[in-house]
Specification:
CATH architecture of the largest domain: Alpha-Beta Complex
CATH topology of the largest domain: Quinone Oxidoreductase, Chain A, domain 1
Helix content: 10-25%
Oligomer: single chain
Largest sheet: 7 strands, mixed
Number of strands: 17
Shape: globular
CATH class of the largest domain: Alpha Beta
CATH superfamily of the largest domain: Medium-chain alcohol dehydrogenases, catalytic domain
Length: about 325
């Protein structure tokens, strides 16, 4: 079966029409006809080979939503015609201690949807049955894609850190990740504070779920929050005044990173005396993704998106590069 797609032929190249042979479906594999695919900064990183793991021609796209067209031997819980989603991971070994304990996203041999395989900027994508997640009826296909990457990235810390409804949570950065984090934390029952360098985002942050807003340009506001937070979730990819954010944590508070900040430097004594901690997490397991989707459906949580035809993929990528979307771009298949 020949699959039409859009691919980069080399690092940082514009995407061009591309066809490839999908081959016969294997055991425990699922084929998805793509209806929508979100665009993530990780797609840009792979196109540019920023992490030096890209293989060309590269078909990006790892926020996939579509319908199942075929299932291989050994797939019993999914069926043709079912609407499903697929995120960053397309397969894990299902045998190691991490997979067997439900931490599939920590599997040492987990395979990325766009690492060594072709992703969702095309007609079809193939993945292992364990990572193909049915979409609840209450979630729209058009807006679901970003939940499978950005959404699970900010939802998983609530689970991993055992955040309670009585906790105070701060979210640093109101962008593609942060705007979903505000919604999840508010629906979780937490008291939510948004941190941003952009004062014009305060009204929107409050609409998304923030009880409070802090301008990070005003260092005095952060100093006045000493010992306030049970978790501060950092969604930005820049260095911060880490000691100031540590100071804003309660004893046993956690500073949790999901944005790829280049480095973290902070004094150790506040960590020791306050039993505070730095941490981070990569996406989430299939079970946690499923729980996130059910939670989002129950509370009406969805990313703010704009849709662009997949044939205009280069325009969409340029818009993401220049930081213009509010807040996620989703490609609609128009093959």
């Amino acid at each position: 079966m020949n699959i039409k797609a859009y691919a980069a032929s080399k690092a940082a190249a514009a995407l061009e029409p591309f066809e490839y042979e999908l081959g016969d479906i294997g055991a425990e594999q699922v084929d998805i006809r793509v209806s929508h695919c979100g665009i993530c900064h990780s797609d840009l990183s792979m196109i540019d080979n920023a992490w030096e793991i890209a293989e060309y021609p590269l078909v990006p796209g790892h926020e996939v939503v579509g319908t199942i067209t075929a299932v291989g031997p050994g797939v019993t819980h999914l069926k043709k015609g079912q609407t499903v989603g697929l995120g960053w991971f397309a397969q894990s070994c299902m045998l190691c201690s991490q997979c067997m304990s439900g931490n599939h996203n920590l599997c040492a041999s987990a395979e990325g949807t766009i690492v060594g395989r072709h992703g969702g900027f095309g007609e079809m994508v193939r993945a292992h049955k364990g990572w193909v997640i049915p979409l609840p009826n209450a979630i729209k296909s058009a807006s679901a894609g970003p939940l499978f990457c950005g959404g699970i990235t900010v939802f998983n810390p609530l689970v991993q850190n055992n955040i309670r409804p009585t906790d105070r949570v701060g979210v640093v950065g109101i962008g593609g990740l942060g705007h979903m984090a505000l919604q999840f934390a508010r629906a979780w029952g937490c008291e939510v504070t948004a941190f941003s360098t952009s004062p014009e985002k305060e009204k929107e942050a409050r609409q998304l779920g923030a009880h409070h807003y802090v301008s990070t340009r005003d260092t005095g506001q952060l100093e006045n929050l000493a010992g306030h937070f049970d978790m501060i979730l950092v969604t930005v990819n820049v260095s911060l005044p880490w000691d100031a954010y540590l100071n804003a944590l309660n004893p046993k508070g956690r500073l949790h990173l999901v944005g790829a900040a280049p480095s973290v430097e902070a004094p150790t004594m506040p960590l020791i005396i306050g039993q505070k901690s730095f941490g981070g997490s990569p996406l989430g397991s299939p079970a946690t993704i499923n729980a996130m989707l059910e939670f989002a459906a129950r509370h009406g949580i969805e990313p703010m998106i704009e849709t662009i035809p997949m044939s205009k993929v280069n325009d969409a990528l340029e818009k993401l590069r220049t930081g213009k979307p509010r807040y996620r771009i989703v490609l609609e298949s128009d093959f």
